[in-house]
């Protein structure tokens, strides 16, 4: 089959790789009909090279049709249309039964000290082949796969794989009081959904992003948008009686602008020999923290900062004096996708499209054009906000 493979930092290519096969009784093989590029894929593209191996199959936002199932699979059948959550979880362990599927004890990557295995996401999370491919093997298919209807287009459902439940969890973790205020930093795909979810839940939502097309998209959904910089911060504080919003969702993470030293460090570590690069990430790794520090400065005293953007540094400096003095609550973590499925399915199937899932994709390209698509998404050229790849089976 054809699949998007990581080759080296800043270089992905579409190659012939072996077709996936059933390896355990609970496996299923899914023929992929749509697969997206996520902001987290850019971490692999540039930053996390020391944890990647040339030929790794990328992608963790995918959906398609079940082609084959193992003898232990009883809930899904060949022909079912399904969404594949990016976290691989069993549904039966202590963590899963407490709604912490991203910490699944059955699939935890213990040799790396990491939580549940993820599709297409480096040695840190199990090095499981991902969904930017024609076919995908899905372990624990009975629990993991989300069965959906046959009538609506893929784009109604595709984002249930990651960014929609991740945004939902980020807003839930933000603990905004009824009728309260929420600021979202970053209006990439994750931030778009976080802001819209806030509006849907009746909050006054502000958002900051340097890209005009992203601000325009969010404004269409009732979000009050501001350019990056001190003027936007002051405007949000003025609109909240000088206190700042009740909560801030950081939807940027380690890709933040305004952190040139950390960016340079990322580039250096990404090109080091594997062992040296991993050691550097694990001992002196720092993130680009501009968005996180802005969140801490912006949120009101006694408010909540919810981290939905991914961070990976182990030595990132934090302003503990300000955090303690302002009595800030922090929530964060990989999304527990299956905890939110029942909340989100009715919303994506609603004819009114309350979360605007049909107003996100700006580029749909053949799988074969993945290399150009990654570069387009990373550089935000041509108004690119969200890319979906079409495997276009041969």
Automatic annotation (TrEMBL):
Keyword Membrane: no
Reported cofactor(s): Zn(2+)
Annotated ranges, domain Alcohol dehydrogenase-like N-terminal: 25-142
Top-level taxonomy: Bacteria, Bacillati, Actinomycetota, Actinomycetes, Micrococcales
Residues of the Alcohol dehydrogenase-like C-terminal domain: 189-255
PANTHER family recorded: DEHYDROGENASE, ZINC-CONTAINING, PUTATIVE (AFU_ORTHOLOGUE AFUA_2G02810)-RELATED, ZINC-TYPE ALCOHOL DEHYDROGENASE-LIKE
InterPro entries found in the cross-reference section: ADH-like_C, ADH-like_N, ADH_Zn_CS, GroES-like_sf, NAD(P)-bd_dom_sf
PROSITE patterns: ADH_ZINC
EC nos: 1.1.1.-
Protein known as: Zinc-dependent alcohol dehydrogenase
Similarity field: Belongs to the zinc-containing alcohol dehydrogenase family.
The UniProt record lists the keyword Secreted: no
Annotated keywords: Metal-binding, Oxidoreductase, Zinc
Gene Ontology molecular function: any one: oxidoreductase activity
Organism (species): Brachybacterium rhamnosum
């Amino acid at each position: 089959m054809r699949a998007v493979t990581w080759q080296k930092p800043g270089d992905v290519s579409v190659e012939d790789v072996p077709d996936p096969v059933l390896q355990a009784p609970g496996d299923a093989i899914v023929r992929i009909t749509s697969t997206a590029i996520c902001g987290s894929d850019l971490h692999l593209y540039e930053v996390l090279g020391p944890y990647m191996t040339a030929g790794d199959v990328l992608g963790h936002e995918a959906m398609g049709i079940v082609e084959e199932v193992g003898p232990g699979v009883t809930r899904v059948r060949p022909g079912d249309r399904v969404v594949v959550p990016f976290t691989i979880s069993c549904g039966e362990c202590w963590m899963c039964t407490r709604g912490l599927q991203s910490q699944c004890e059955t699939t935890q990557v213990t040799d790396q000290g990491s939580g549940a295995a993820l599709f297409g996401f480096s040695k840190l999370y199990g090095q499981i082949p991902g969904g930017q491919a024609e076919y995908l093997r899905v372990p624990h298919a009975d629990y993991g796969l989300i069965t959906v209807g046959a009538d609506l287009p893929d784009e109604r459902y595709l984002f249930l794989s990651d960014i929609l439940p991740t945004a939902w969890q980020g807003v839930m973790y933000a603990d905004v009081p009824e009728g309260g205020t929420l600021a979202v930093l970053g209006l990439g795909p994750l931030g778009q959904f976080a802001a819209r979810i806030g509006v849907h839940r009746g909050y006054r939502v502000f958002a900051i992003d340097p890209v005009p097309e992203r601000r325009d998209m969010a404004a269409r959904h009732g979000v009050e948008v501001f350019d990056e910089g001190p003027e936007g911060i002051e405007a949000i504080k003025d609109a909240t009686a000088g206190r700042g919003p009740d909560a801030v969702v950081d939807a940027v993470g380690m890709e933040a602008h305004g952190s040139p030293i950390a960016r340079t460090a990322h580039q250096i570590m990404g090109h080091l020999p594997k062992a040296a690069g991993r050691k550097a990430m694990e001992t002196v790794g720092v993130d680009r923290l501009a968005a996180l520090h802005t969140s801490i400065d912006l949120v009101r005293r006694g408010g909540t900062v919810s981290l939905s953007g991914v961070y990976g540094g182990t030595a990132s400096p934090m302003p503990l004096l300000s955090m303690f003095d302002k009595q800030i609550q922090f929530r964060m973590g990989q999304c527990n996708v299956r905890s939110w499925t029942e909340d989100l399915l009715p919303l994506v199937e609603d004819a009114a499209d309350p979360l605007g899932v049909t107003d996100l994709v700006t580029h749909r390209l053949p799988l074969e054009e993945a290399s150009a698509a990654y570069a387009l998404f990373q550089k935000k050229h041509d108004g690119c906000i969200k890319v979906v790849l079409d495997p276009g089976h041969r």
